[in-house]
Prior knowledge:
The protein is mainly alpha-helical. The protein has one domain. The protein contains two helices and two strands, in the order E-E-H-H. A two-stranded antiparallel ribbon has the order 1-2. It is flat. The termini are far apart.
Amino acid sequence: MTVRIMGDEYTIIGSAPDDYINDLIKNVEERIEAVSTAHGNAKLSKTQLAVLVALQVTDELQQLRMEHEKMVKLIQEAK
């Protein structure tokens, strides 16, 4: 499927349903808008916005991984 992010077209290839991909795109666009708004008058390029959003998402992923590891450890200790 072909999608638009920040005005640019991207072809997404995979087995995920279109609705799922559209939800991902919506989330990315919302994050881009939030980062852009948070930086106020700073004129960030598309690349800068993408990198800042990537850092934000990576931080969330890392936090979830650490939380998951703690939960697994607690479950193992409870057995």
